[in-house]
């Protein structure tokens, strides 16, 4: 299956699962505690988003000051944003995934995977294209009729 088909199925299925879980949890602990739990995770997620975002931005600036490329911080930034958005979305599955994105050790592993499997391969492909362009022979061409 293509990535967009999988993403479409996930976006379609997750809300139904979230609603089912909210109803089940509401049946066990009550409607009001369930609503409070959802609001609490959203507030906690916003606080963690702010804290982790500032910490990552500070590491980004420190890397630049040392003259290093802040590769991990540039990949961690969008992961933090996705985690924060998922925590602000009502539901328990999105909260679990959102909290996982805001745990620094787990986020570092995701960033490392993305850098090694996607960015390094893209950089190698770009380098091969650049080398192929350097193998061009310069010359003049004229067409005689």
Automatic annotation (TrEMBL):
Specify the signal sequence span. Answer: none
UniProt name for this protein: FxsA family protein
PANTHER family cross-referenced by the UniProt entry: UPF0716 PROTEIN FXSA
Name its species.
Answer: Candidatus Methylobacter oryzae
Which UniProt keywords are listed?
Answer: Membrane, Transmembrane, Transmembrane helix
* Superkingdom field: Bacteria
Transmembrane domains' residue ranges: 6-23, 30-49, 79-103
Q: Does the keyword Translocase apply?
A: no
InterPro entries in UniProt: FxsA
């Amino acid at each position: 299956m293509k990535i967009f088909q999988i993403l479409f199925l996930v976006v379609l299925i997750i809300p139904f699962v979230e609603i089912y879980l909210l109803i089940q949890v509401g049946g066990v602990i009550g409607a009001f505690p369930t609503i409070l739990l959802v609001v609490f995770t959203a507030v906690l997620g916003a606080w963690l988003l702010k804290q982790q975002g500032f910490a990552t931005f500070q590491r980004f600036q420190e890397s630049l000051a040392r003259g290093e490329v802040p590769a991990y911080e540039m990949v961690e930034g969008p992961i933090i944003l996705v985690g924060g958005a998922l925590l602000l979305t009502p539901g328990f599955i999105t909260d679990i995934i959102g909290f996982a994105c805001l745990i620094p050790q787990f986020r570092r592993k995701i960033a490392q995977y993305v850098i090694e499997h996607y960015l390094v391969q893209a950089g190698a492909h770009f380098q091969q294209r650049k080398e192929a362009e350097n193998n061009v022979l310069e010359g003049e061409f004229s067409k005689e009729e």
